[in-house]
Amino acid sequence: MKLVLNEEQQFLKDTAKDFAEERTPITHFRNLRDTNDPAMWDKDIWEEMVNLGWSGILIPEEYGGSDFGVTGMSVVLQECGKTLTPSPLFATAVLGAYAIKEFGDNEQKSKYLPLIASGKITTAVAVDESSHHNPANTELSAVTSDNGFVINGSKKLVVDGSSADVLIVLARTSGSMGELAGLTLFIVDSKADGIIRSKLEMADSRNYANIEFNNVAVGASSVLGSQEAGGEAIDHILDIGRIALSAEMLGNSEAAFSTTIDYLKERKQFGVLIGTFQALQHRAAEMFCEIELTKSSVMAAMQGADENSNQLQVLASLAKSIAGDTLHLISNEAIQMHGGIGVTDEYDLGFFLKRARVAEQIFGSVNFHKERYANLSGF
């Protein structure tokens, strides 16, 4: 496995870099936060992303996409992560598109994938039911009825859950809490009767929701994939999401590190630049090394996904855990090296710290993935 980008992937990365710097600098995110935008992403910016083809990167050409692979999507998210660009890209173009592409039947693919590629709908994947990530702990039930299923229960911390048009919901059709067996995925209209969405106010000011399902009736055709096979399917979908999110977290780390290095070269203390202090040089060197390690792990994971590696689970957990550790370290160090001003709202670094603390928890914390990696490796 060569841990380098090919010419097309590098071009896509450069395009995303220019777009993020010109169209969605951190001032864009700050403006959405300050105006308390209900969706926390800009529809015009999303339309520009769609026109660039980003919403269809994981979608086959026959459904209006480019089928450019997980690596292509990940490098876009990495560059967007450098400016904290808020958009439905992760929840829709990664999770939703991949779930339907891989597990949808022909009718579902024909119905939803062109709408995702053209930006006409957004999606969200509803998995967790508590603050601790574990798909096996699903209690939300889907009970068979004359016309299909009736869903009851709740989901927590659904990424883009308050604005999504379509929900992909993990429900239990048999078995007991703690078992992956007996889980089924459903495609549900977010405006269906019985759905109550409550937007969450999170530290990173992104779009999340808690969602309640009260006797939500869905047809048999809403089952995504095979009934009772949702546990295996969601594991695969989440691994792709974890890889893409790790790439975004890498971008967060790179930007926070770059900002800190610039500050070390400008700030004077006792008449000298603080970047000349050996203790700070050592800490900066550690940050640099951790970023390089993260680059390797994230690239190995995203290329492994495109090559259908049988080690995908291992690579995804490795990338998510290392990216989480690195972002935690660098967001802390960046604040410390800036001193008191680092936590003031006038400086952008506080946004990276807040984003880090939430991103670390999405689809499994560092500890979750270290344990998963160990179990998968036979330890």
Notable characteristics:
4-stranded mixed beta sheet; Butyryl-CoA Dehydrogenase, subunit A, domain 3; Butyryl-CoA Dehydrogenase, subunit A, domain 2; Butyryl-Coa Dehydrogenase, subunit A, domain 1
Task: Chart the SSEs and their pairings.
Layout: H1 7-23, H2 26-34, H3 43-51, H4 69-82, H5 89-103, H6 106-117, E1 123-126, E2 141-145, E3 148-159, E4 166-172, E5 183-189, E6 195-199, E7 208-219, E8 223-224, H7 230-266, E9 268-269, E10 272-273, H8 278-306, H9 312-338, H10 349-359, H11 366-376
Parallel strand pairs: 1-4
Antiparallel strand pairs: 2-3, 3-7, 4-5, 5-8, 6-7, 9-10
Helix pairs in contact: 1-4, 4-7, 4-8, 5-6, 5-7, 7-8, 7-9, 7-10, 8-9, 9-10, 9-11
What can you see in these coordinates?
- By secondary structure, this protein is of the alpha+beta class.
- It has three domains: about 5-120, Acyl-CoA dehydrogenase/oxidase, N-terminal domain (Butyryl-Coa Dehydrogenase, subunit A, domain 1, Orthogonal Bundle), CATH 1.10.540.10; about 125-230, Butyryl-CoA Dehydrogenase, subunit A, domain 2, CATH 2.40.110; about 230-375, Up-down Bundle (Butyryl-CoA Dehydrogenase, subunit A, domain 3).
- Helices cover about 50% and strands about 15% of the residues.
- A four-stranded mixed beta sheet has the order 1-4-5-8, covered by helices on one side. A four-stranded antiparallel beta sheet has the order 2-3-7-6, with no helix packed on it. Strands 9-10 form a two-stranded antiparallel sheet.
- Strand 6 and strand 7 (about 210-220) form a beta hairpin.
- The chain is globular and about 80 Å long.
- The mean pLDDT is about 95.
